């Protein structure tokens, strides 16, 4: 089985969902989590707090610096993710479709062969 990262994206400045919409997203995401676990696809998943809470750690010329994040200057940020194991990309895309329906755009990326254990 190959592992895939499904990452949920949010766009800075986009209209905020209502409280009811957020509760629906949480409920649907929980349902999908349960379905993934029952199917044996679930490895790990979680939501992230806002990117302004990030700290970027760098080592340059042997010296460590830490600065407020996020790392990239962008309007799109990862809001949460799943790591799943699937037989192939088609199976991962089927899970991503369910996830996108629950909580918005999802990017699917396979782990490299060195990460597969």
Compile the SSE list and pairings.
Layout (H helix, E strand, L loop, with lengths): L1 E10 L7 H21 L2 E6 L7 E6 L2 E6 L7 E11 L2 H15 L2 E5 L7
Antiparallel strand pairs: 1-5, 1-6, 2-5, 3-4
Helix pairs in contact: 1-2
Could you walk me through the main structural features you see in this protein, from its secondary elements to its overall organization?
This protein is of the alpha+beta class and 117 residues long. Helices cover 31% and strands 38% of the residues. The protein has 2 helices and 6 strands. The chain has helices at 19-39, 89-103; strands at 2-11, 42-47, 55-60, 63-68, 76-86, 106-110. The strands form 2 sheets. The chain has a 4-stranded antiparallel sheet with strand order 2-5-1-6, covered by helices on one side. A hairpin with a 2-residue loop joins strand 3 and strand 4. Helix 1 (19-39) runs antiparallel to helix 2 (89-103). The protein is flat, with a radius of gyration of 16 Å. 14% of the residues are buried.
Keywords:
two-stranded antiparallel ribbon; 117 residues; alpha+beta
Brief summary:
This protein is of the alpha+beta class and 117 residues long. It is built from two helices and six strands, in the order βαββββαβ.
Quote the average pLDDT. 91
Helix/strand order:
EHEEEEHE
Report the helical percentage.
25-40%
Distance between the termini: 9 Å
State the shape.
Answer: flat
Give the structural class. alpha+beta
> What order do the strands of the largest sheet run in, or round the barrel if closed?
2-5-1-6
Taking all Cα atoms into account, the compactness measure Rg is 16 Å
Tally of strands: 6
The fraction of residues in strands falls at: 35-45%
User: pLDDT under 50 segments (min length 5)?
Assistant: none
């Amino acid at each position: 089985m190959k592992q895939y990262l499904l990452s949920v994206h949010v766009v800075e400045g986009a209209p905020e969902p209502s409280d009811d919409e957020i509760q629906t997203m949480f409920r649907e995401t929980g349902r999908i989590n349960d379905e993934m676990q029952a199917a044996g696809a679930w490895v790990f998943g979680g939501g992230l707090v806002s990117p302004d809470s990030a700290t970027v750690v760098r080592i340059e010329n042997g010296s460590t610096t830490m600065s407020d994040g996020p790392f990239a200057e962008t309007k799109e940020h990862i809001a949460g993710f799943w790591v799943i194991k699937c037989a192939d990309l088609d199976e991962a895309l089927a899970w991503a479709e369910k996830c996108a329906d629950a909580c918005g755009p999802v990017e699917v990326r396979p782990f490299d062969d060195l990460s597969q254990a």
